[in-house]
Amino acid sequence: MLRSTPAPPLTATSAASRRRTADSRGSARTSLTSSSPRSPEPSRAERGAETQRNTRVYGRRIGRPLRKQRQELLDQLLPHLRLTVVDGEPLDPRALFPGLQDVWIETGFGFGEHLAWQAAAHPDVGFVGCELFINGVASLVRHVQEQNLANVRIADTDAFRVFSVLPTASIGRAFLLFPDPWPKARHHRRRFVRSDVLDLYARVLRDGAELRFATDHTAYCTWALSHVVRHGAFEWTAETAAEWRRRPADWPPTRYEQRALEAGRKPAFLTFRRRPRAENSGAAG
């Protein structure tokens, strides 16, 4: 059984990053130290094969065979929803969604329930979803068809390829929800929250844009928080512990959150804001 390790106190790190003294808000944040057991089931990546060697994103590509009806729906609709990435060729996200006010991106959208909910709630925003897991792609395609969503595009390819062709400051919000925590030390380099990936987010996010992160793995939460605040391009928006312990109202539940709760694990919901580039000239972007 994999278990979360207790997280070290974070008050000093967060306070220094946000230029705040240690007050009640800072002390509330240190309660990330509670440890909770992991589910006995293997990680999402370990349940299946890893992706092809020419990608920097780790995870399974194919799970259970799709039912005939689901496969037919995927074959019919995915060509119309697919975001085709040509390496080295800039991609204007606004051109994908003419007339819409903004473009948001979700990296690793799982089975798509969060992205579909957001797309339905924000019809004036275009959504780019990145996911290699074909069963998850098929699930989102079904959501798009059932809800008649016209503001969704799917990149069923390496997310790094998508980030590489997006213009600087072109994205208004980014979601990274319940990524694989890769709990073994030798696999930490596979975690999606690390300095080089944060450089990519910092480049494509506009000043003031949000980066939303969720995890049910205590050690990964600590890892993510320390990496993001140390990066310098982002500030943590939480003022009280309740703000990261409870899922915000505009943040719908997903099956991964439900599995965590059923297993006795309490998810954390972290929101970071892209600092203005003028005040953070040393960070990427």
Describe this protein's structure:
This protein is 35% helix and 15% strand. With 285 residues, the protein is of the alpha/beta class. It has one domain (11-279): Vaccinia Virus protein VP39 (Rossmann fold, 3-Layer(aba) Sandwich), CATH 3.40.50. A 7-stranded mixed sheet has the order 3-2-1-4-5-7-6, sandwiched between helices. Helix 8 (195-204) links the parallel strand 4 and strand 5 (205-215). Helix 5 packs parallel to helix 6 (134-147). The longest helix has 14 residues, at 68-81. The model is unreliable at 1-55 (pLDDT under 50).
Strand content: 15-25%
How would a textbook summarize the main sheet? 7 strands, mixed
* Radius of gyration, whole Å: 19 Å
Structural class: alpha/beta
CATH class: Alpha Beta
State the strand order across the main sheet.
Answer: 3-2-1-4-5-7-6
Unreliable stretches (pLDDT < 50, length at least 5) are: 1-55
Secondary-structure blueprint:
Elements: H1 11-18, H2 24-29, H3 68-81, H4 93-96, E1 102-107, H5 113-121, E2 125-130, H6 134-147, E3 152-155, H7 159-165, E4 171-177, H8 195-204, E5 205-215, H9 218-231, E6 234-236, H10 241-245, H11 255-262, E7 268-274
Parallel strand pairs: 1-2, 1-4, 2-3, 4-5
Antiparallel strand pairs: 5-7, 6-7
Helix pairs in contact: 1-9, 3-6, 5-6
